């Protein structure tokens, strides 16, 4: 039983008509649907620190949305810790913590209230000890009673990380968690996440900071136009492509798919 599994997953978003309010007018053509994922099969084992890389629009966020139950696959199946994300969605979601790209927050609550509310979604009502530990490790302990709308963008992103961790999920997905944040947050975040990984948590990371992926991830998949075009250990990818570093290897693969055939 893998931590994360996708089996021949495809996702096609339905076409939008070119007309006003979804109505086609004479002479207008129906726009084709958009295929975000195309027959993707992938497994991430328990305890891995796994990197999912690709350019904007490659399908990374769509894959994460399917795993999190926010989108349904057009075909194929996905599971979290052996729980199908459709037929056993409650356990699948309980096993997963997701840090999204977007800054989403409720402006009416303090940081601590936000984390207590998130705990309640999972039936955890006496969770303050773990909340205190998360706040400390993410450098939020002095902001615990601050209103969310009063925080800086970097502090709000720390709260998103805390929300994903508050129910102690065995699998954590970080969707570009350090985009636009300062060096201090990046260092604090990676120290804490690396510690959780050593304690047995599975981590899936998407990032455009490829030096982060190279330093942290034991195995990496690269997506392009909804397909996996590379899948191997970080060391093996560098050796096979011949790049000086992961960024160099990434550029070579994205510009020349024949540089490396996808492997299982």
CATH homology-level superfamily of the domain at 1-17 and 31-95 and 171-178 and 202-264: P-loop containing nucleotide triphosphate hydrolases
Q: What is the structural class?
A: alpha/beta
Query: What's the CATH C level of the domain at 1-17 and 31-95 and 171-178 and 202-264?
Result: Alpha Beta
Spell the H/E element sequence: EEEHEEHEHHHEHEHEEHH
Largest sheet: 6 strands, mixed
How large a portion of the residues is in β-strands, by DSSP E? 15-25%
Low-confidence stretches: none
In angstroms, what is the radius of gyration?
Answer: 20 Å
What does this structure look like?
With 264 residues, the chain is an alpha/beta fold. The protein has a domain at 1-17 and 31-95 and 171-178 and 202-264: P-loop containing nucleotide triphosphate hydrolases (Rossmann fold), CATH 3.40.50. Helices cover 34% and strands 23% of the residues. It is built from nine helices and ten strands. It has helices at 60-68, 89-94, 111-121, 128-137, 153-165, 183-198, 210-216, 234-241, 246-255, and strands at 4-13, 34-44, 49-53, 75-80, 83-84, 96-99, 171-175, 202-206, 219-224, 227-233. The protein has a six-stranded mixed beta sheet, with helices on both faces. Strands 2-1-4-5 form a four-stranded antiparallel beta sheet. A hairpin with a 2-residue loop joins strand 9 (219-224) and strand 10. The longest helix is centred in the C-terminal third of the chain and has 16 residues, at 183-198. The model has no long low-confidence stretch (mean pLDDT 88).
């Amino acid at each position: 039983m893998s931590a994360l599994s996708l089996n021949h997953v495809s996702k096609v978003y339905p076409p939008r008509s070119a007309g006003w309010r979804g109505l086609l007018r004479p002479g207008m053509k129906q726009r084709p649907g958009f295929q975000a994922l195309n027959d993707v099969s992938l497994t991430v084992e328990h305890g891995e620190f796994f990197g999912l890389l690709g350019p904007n629009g490659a399908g990374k966020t769509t894959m994460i949305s399917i795993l999190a139950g926010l989108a349904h696959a057009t075909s194929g199946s996905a599971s979290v810790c052996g729980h199908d994300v459709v037929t056993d969605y409650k356990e699948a979601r309980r096993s997963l913590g997701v840090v999204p790209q977007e800054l989403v927050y409720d402006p009416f609550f303090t940081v601590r209230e936000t984390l207590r509310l998130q705990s309640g979604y999972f039936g955890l009502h006496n969770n303050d000890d773990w909340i205190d530990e998360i706040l400390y490790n993410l450098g939020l302990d002095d902001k615990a009673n601050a209103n969310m709308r009063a925080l800086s963008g970097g502090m709000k992103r720390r709260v998103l990380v805390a929300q994903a961790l508050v129910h102690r999920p065995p699998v954590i997905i970080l969707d570009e968690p350090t985009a636009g944040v300062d060096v201090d947050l990046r260092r604090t975040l990676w120290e804490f996440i690396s510690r959780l990984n050593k304690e047995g948590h599975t981590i899936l990371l998407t990032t455009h900071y490829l030096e982060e992926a190279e330093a942290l991830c034991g195995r990496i998949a690269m997506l392009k136009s909804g397909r996996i075009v590379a899948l191997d250990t970080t060391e093996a990818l560098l050796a096979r492509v011949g790049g000086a570093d992961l960024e160099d290897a990434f550029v070579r693969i994205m510009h020349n798919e024949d540089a490396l055939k996808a492997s299982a």
